[in-house]
């Protein structure tokens, strides 16, 4: 049996140039084919509203390439009147909060099956940009601020999808960490720091999952657009890392044909580029360049070979009958992710809710009577049976502004609470005015106030507040009744001006189509919370690397430069570096039981291995997430998460946990050598419950090492 490389080489040789040019572009199903010659449009018969469609070459057994968004389920909301909806999984940040990579894999496999059932052989799933900025509208589509966490979860999602015979895409390569003016955005960073942060996340994720494709971001890095960034695509991704799949552009990210020379293998959504840049279609310009000898034949063949290689490696040419899809089982996976991903931030004894007496409970706001919000943009999934409600918000963010929506998934926390607490007296108030909400609060034993926010593609949030006056509602409710619990359904940290007035706070993020049930289960103690924050919650924007976000005040389309001067010191690393205590630390999350750590044993040499014993010292079964950090490296303060585990323990039970670090997390990238370098010396290792709560530490020695690329 020949390898995918050999097969790709053989097939490519048999193609005509017309077929080659056809394979290196895709069309958007939903957008009229402006500028696309009639003979190259999507045939009506296969127009299944793909985000990308590329005709196949039947005589050589090459299937048509059909792609769909995204990391939280099969989507293309609004574009798919023919589709009755898919499983709307929790946002990726919820998956990251579980610190349970297996759930990313299960979710990925379910998404792969649902894609395949619809004929999609490419999923645009696997967003792993680092959450560098708590205003980034798309952080909910990513896993974490930490490179290791992002890489491990992104890889498992890709592995799950690809195991179902569907190509998956890690995106958006790279440093697409803000949405502000994203098509005109220059992300500036020190190249070495880039290798040690965002690029390291991609590098590790690629090694662990071999994604068939990588999507280049809209933005520039250090002056060069990603889709045509010779250094990052040719030298780093394909050169130093030896990536053998193909690079597709983001939709509307290719203003120039010569990006093909700089590493781009496939232009996505041809019509979007024509619209965005007023340019002639990429293929037409490429054909011209080819005829003029500016595009070498070998490069054209390489673009095609890379696409074919991924098709063969993942097996999209070998599809038999579509797999049976058990949609009920997929709902269970969505539910389990939400259960494990919801984070209990504070608890002054108010939770779990008492179930032994008939409480008078006031539920306030957040459309909790209807459902739970999801993020907006290309990643929003239309659930089976439709949204509970959709409210168009609009916004001055180009095309995406028009489709900025509050989407409510039909899993009502109110209804679920009523199911779990049949003896309670539960009243609902819509959070319409502070005065009215306070009336309900005043006559309740306990109040559960919901805070929601719409976050999504093409816009960043200017501040950390809750919209629609919800902070005033929560404040009024907590003033009327100090026994208030707040449930936040947001994609990012928010400021909590009412924080000291409430008894408990839950971060439920965008918890997906079973989110209402998971929230109710956590509130009532049916589920013991075990989620941990994969992103630091700042006390205010002043603590963050960019108190002011450049470009946020300018109209859509303004060339913008954002400097990521924090370099590799992203998130918790920044707070450690500055010696500043955030509101809630990375890794933080409470449980209804307690855990202790002991018997730390750390060994060094080539890398660090830490062993510790975790004990459940409380009264309930629960899951804990022990975390191992580097805090000092050969005489320098340096904070890096080296690894984590998730252990489920019965009361009184102990488990020994072993965590070995990827040595790149202990090293610096040596740009002149193009390799990773560990300096010999003493390394301080700390173990604990969050980046701020590290009760145990030990020193070990590492040897000098120059390795990798
Ligand atoms: C997004 C991508 C998405 C693509 C196709 C773009 O606007 O940035 O994440 O995969 O659209 O829908």
Fold blueprint:
Blueprint lengths: L3 H10 L3 H7 L28 E3 L10 E4 L23 H7 L2 H17 L4 E2 L23 H16 L4 E7 L11 E4 L2 H5 L2 H12 L3 E4 L3 E2 L2 E2 L4 H11 L5 E4 L20 H8 L4 H10 L5 H18 L12 H15 L1 E5 L12 E5 L7 E3 L14 E4 L5 H5 L2 E5 L3 H8 L4 E5 L4 H9 L3 E7 L17 H11 L3 E6 L14 E4 L7 H10 L35 E4 L8 H7 L16 E9 L5 E8 L5 E3 L2 E7 L2 E9 L2 E3 L4 E7 L7 E3 L4 E4 L2 E8 L7 E7 L2 E3 L2
Parallel strand pairs: 2-3, 3-4, 4-6, 5-7, 5-19, 6-9, 11-15, 11-16, 16-17, 17-18
Antiparallel strand pairs: 1-2, 7-8, 10-18, 12-14, 13-14, 20-21, 21-26, 22-25, 23-24, 23-29, 27-28, 28-31, 29-30
Helix pairs in contact: 1-11, 3-12, 4-5, 4-12, 5-7, 12-17, 14-17, 15-16
Bound molecules: beta-D-glucopyranose (BGC).
Keywords:
709 residues, alpha/beta, Rossmann fold, Immunoglobulin-like, six-stranded mixed beta sheet, 18 helices, 21% strand, globular, binds beta-D-glucopyranose
Structure description:
Strand 23 and strand 24 form a beta hairpin. Among the domains are: 208 residues, Rossmann fold, CATH 3.40.50; 115 residues, Immunoglobulin-like. The model has no long low-confidence stretch (mean pLDDT 95). It has 709 residues and is an alpha/beta fold. Helices cover 26% and strands 21% of the residues. The longest helix has 18 residues. Strands 1-2-3-4-6-9 form a 6-stranded mixed β-sheet. A 6-stranded mixed β-sheet has the order 10-18-17-16-11-15, sandwiched between helices. The structure holds beta-D-glucopyranose.
């Amino acid at each position: 049996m020949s390898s995918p490389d050999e097969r790709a080489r053989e097939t490519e040789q048999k193609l005509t140039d017309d077929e080659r040019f056809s394979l290196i572009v895709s069309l958007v199903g939903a957008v009229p084919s402006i500028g696309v010659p009639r003979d190259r449009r999507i045939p009506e018969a296969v127009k299944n509203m793909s985000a990308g469609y590329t005709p196949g070459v039947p005589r050589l057994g090459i299937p048509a390439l059909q792609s769909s968004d995204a990391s939280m389920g099969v989507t293309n909301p609004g574009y798919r009147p023919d589709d009755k909806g898919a499983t709307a999984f929790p946002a990726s940040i919820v998956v990251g909060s579980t610190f349970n990579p297996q759930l990313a894999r299960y979710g990925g496999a379910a998404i792969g099956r649902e894609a395949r059932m619809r004929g999609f052989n490419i999923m645009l799933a696997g967003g792993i940009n680092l959450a560098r900025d708590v205003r980034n509208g798309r952080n909910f589509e990513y896993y974490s601020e930490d490179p290791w966490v992002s890489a491990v979860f992104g890889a498992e999602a890709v592995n799950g999808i690809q195991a179902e015979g569907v190509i998956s895409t890690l995106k958006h390569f790279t440093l697409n960490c803000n949405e502000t003016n994203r098509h005109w955005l220059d992300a500036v960073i020190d190249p070495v720091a880039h290798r040690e942060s965002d690029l390291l996340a991609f590098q590790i994720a690629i090694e662990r999952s071999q994604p068939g494709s990588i999507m280049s971001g809209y933005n520039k890095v250090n002056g060069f657009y990603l889709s045509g960034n010779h250094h990052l695509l040719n030298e780093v991704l394909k050169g130093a890392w030896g990536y053998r799949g193909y690079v597709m552009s983001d939709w509307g990210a290719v203003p120039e044909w010569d990006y093909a020379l700089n590493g781009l293998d496939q232009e996505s959504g041809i019509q979007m580029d024509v619209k965005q840049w007023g340019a002639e279609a990429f293929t037409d310009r490429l054909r011209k360049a080819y005829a003029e000898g500016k595009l070498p034949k070998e490069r054209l063949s390489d673009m095609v070979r890379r696409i074919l290689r991924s098709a063969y490696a993942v097996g999209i040419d070998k599809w038999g009958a579509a797999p049976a899809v058990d949609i009920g089982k997929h709902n269970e996976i969505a539910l389990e992710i939400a259960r494990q991903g919801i984070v209990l931030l504070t608890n002054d004894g108010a939770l779990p809710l008492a179930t032994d007496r008939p409480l008078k409970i006031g539920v306030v706001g957040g459309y909790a009577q209807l459902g739970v919000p999801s993020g907006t943009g290309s990643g929003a999934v239309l659930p089976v049976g439709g949204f509970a409600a959709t409210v168009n918000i609009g916004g001055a963010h180009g095309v995406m502004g028009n489709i900025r929506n509050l989407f409510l998934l039909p899993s009502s926390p109110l209804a679920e609470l009523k199911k779990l607490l049949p003896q309670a007296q539960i009243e609902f108030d819509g959070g319409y005015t502070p005065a009215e909400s306070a009336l309900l609060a005043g006559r309740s034993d306990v109040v559960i106030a919901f805070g929601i926010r719409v976050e999504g593609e093409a816009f960043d949030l200017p501040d950390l507040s809750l919209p629609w006056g919800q902070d005033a509602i929560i404040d009024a409710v907590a003033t009327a009744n100090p026994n208030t619990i707040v449930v936040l359904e947001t994609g990012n940290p928010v400021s909590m001006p009412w924080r000291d007035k409430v008894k408990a706070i839950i971060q439920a993020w965008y918890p997906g189509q079973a989110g209402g049930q998971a929230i109710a289960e956590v509130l009532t103690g049916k589920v013991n919370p075990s989620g941990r924050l994969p992103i630091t919650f700042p006390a205010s924007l002043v603590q963050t690397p960019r108190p002011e976000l450049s470009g946020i005040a300018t109209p859509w389309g303004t060339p913008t430069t954002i400097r990521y001067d924090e370099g590799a010191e992203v998130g918790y690393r920044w707070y450690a570096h500055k010696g500043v205590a955030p509101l809630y630390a990375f890794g933080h999350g409470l449980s209804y039981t307690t855990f202790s750590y002991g018997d730390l044993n750390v060994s060094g040499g080539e890398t660090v291995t830490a062993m510790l014993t975790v004990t459940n010292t409380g009264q309930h079964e629960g899951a804990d997430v022990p975390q191992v950090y580097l805090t000092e490296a050969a005489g320098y303060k340096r904070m890096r998460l080296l690894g984590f585990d998730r252990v489920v323990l019965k009361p009184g039970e102990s488990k020994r946990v072993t965590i070995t670090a990827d040595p790149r997390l202990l090293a610096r990238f040596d740009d002149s050598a193009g390799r990773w370098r560990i300096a010999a010396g003493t390394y301080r290792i700390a173990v604990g419950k969050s980046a701020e709560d590290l009760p145990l530490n030990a020193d070990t020695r590492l040897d000098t090492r120059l390795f990798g690329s």
